[in-house]
Write a structure and sequence with these properties.
Length: about 180
């Protein structure tokens, strides 16, 4: 659904930018700034070179339009009978899945709380509403993630993630924790 805000490639990017600066011995001003930005974002002081900005970051707030296609707008059942052994179950025609184009908008927010060298909490919130004009149906989506990212030593890390997702359609309410 949404791009993962605790992108595991951030560490790979930090490693590669640092490695390229190390190998080349000379980097551009932009390379060093990028490296410094990534270091600070992850709560590193660079061996005391940078000041760690402990505490809560300003939230990144994003408003976005959406257009998508769904094969199940209403959370309905497939348009076929359910056969279990010798038994055949015929579904209610009013509960069949509907498909179509959805148009909507959403809001997302990301915040970091750096509490130590290479240790931070990352909070992500996403909420959106999509509507199908053809079927006059709406879909509400709500997502909250909390990540604890912790550098142990060298290239060893331990990350803990809590995720909660709720997708509400006319015939279903899917919740994931």
């Amino acid at each position: 659904m949404q791009a993962n805000p605790a992108n595991p490639n951030e560490r790979l990017e930090l490693f590669s930018v640092g490695k390229s600066l190390n190998l080349n011995g000379m980097g551009t001003f932009a390379d060093y700034n990028k490296f410094r930005f990534i270091m600070k974002k992850h709560g590193y002081s660079g061996g005391g070179i940078y000041r760690i900005d402990k505490g809560l970051s300003k939230p990144d707030l994003i408003f976005f339009p959406k257009i998508s296609y769904s094969t199940n707008l209403n959370g309905g059942n497939p348009d076929k009978d359910l056969i279990l052994g010798d038994y055949t179950f015929i579904g209610d025609k009013n509960l069949i899945a509907k498909q179509g184009i959805l148009v909507g908008a959403g809001v997302a927010a990301n915040m970091r709380y750096i509490y130590g060298e290479g240790r931070f909490l990352l909070f992500n919130f996403h909420s959106s509403y999509d509507y199908s004009f053809d079927h006059r149906l709406g879909v509400n989506t709500f997502l909250v993630n909390l990540y604890s990212k912790n550098h142990l030593r060298n290239w060893s890390f331990i990350d803990i993630c809590l995720n909660n997702e709720n997708i509400k359609r006319k015939l279903s309410d899917n919740k994931t924790l």
